[in-house]
């Protein structure tokens, strides 16, 4: 599981979802503890030994680095949702544009709802690194696998970090498309029935992950 965290963190960086050492990745391990990326280590040079294992109360169990300062955001998701095995916090450009404007990203693309659950909601503004941000994220992730952190960035969840990264990429791409569509006069909503059917698939997959 540590290798998946490392690979996903490097992929998140390669895909341009974060800049510098910002953003963070975590996974729930088979024993229930959580492997998180460290604070202030560049992704290019990050190795397995840099990762930190914490319990659900943020006590460090293994590792010589400091866990990410945004660990509470991750741990709140694991405490709240048994089905979640991977959490990613990123700062993608287009998603963060919506986060700054404090506007939800609409589920305007076919199959978006299958992966994300619906429109991507915006959390009320709370300061980064605080327990309140974790609580606010959990409130918004009950019905969705992605949420925008007001004036900050994005959080995505999945059964594994790989799937949480996929959700982040789908949301970021859709944010870019919706922004462009608005320059062309605005996106058309999908038929209600279409998104309702996709929502059924989402709910099934969230409770019965395939991986
Ligand atoms: Zn952040």
Please describe what this structure looks like.
- This protein is of the alpha+beta class.
- It has one domain (2-207): Class II aldolase/adducin N-terminal domain (L-fuculose-1-phosphate Aldolase, 3-Layer(aba) Sandwich).
- It contains seven helices and eight strands, in the order αββββαβααβαββαα.
- It has helices at 2-14, 71-80, 93-101, 112-116, 131-141, 161-183, 192-207; strands at 24-28, 34-36, 52-54, 60-62, 86-90, 122-123, 146-149, 153-158.
- Strand 7 and strand 8 (153-158) form a beta hairpin.
- The chain starts with a helix and ends with a helix.
- The mean pLDDT is 95.
- The chain binds zinc ion (ZN).
- Zinc ion binds next to loops.
- The site of zinc ion has 7 residues, from loops.
Any low-confidence stretches, pLDDT <50, length ≥5? Answer: none
Named CATH architecture: 3-Layer(aba) Sandwich
User: What is the overall shape?
Assistant: globular
Major sheet: size, sense and barrel closure?
8 strands, mixed
Radius of gyration: 16 Å
How many helices in DSSP terms?
7
**Into which percentage range does the β-strand content fall?**
5-15%
- The spatial strand order of the largest sheet comes to 4-3-2-1-5-8-7-6
Oligomer: single chain
> Bound small molecules, which ones?
zinc ion
Quick overview of this protein structure:
By secondary structure, the protein is an alpha+beta fold. It contains 7 helices and 8 strands, in the order αββββαβααβαββαα. The protein has helices spanning 2-14, 71-80, 93-101, 112-116, 131-141, 161-183, 192-207, and strands spanning 24-28, 34-36, 52-54, 60-62, 86-90, 122-123, 146-149, 153-158.
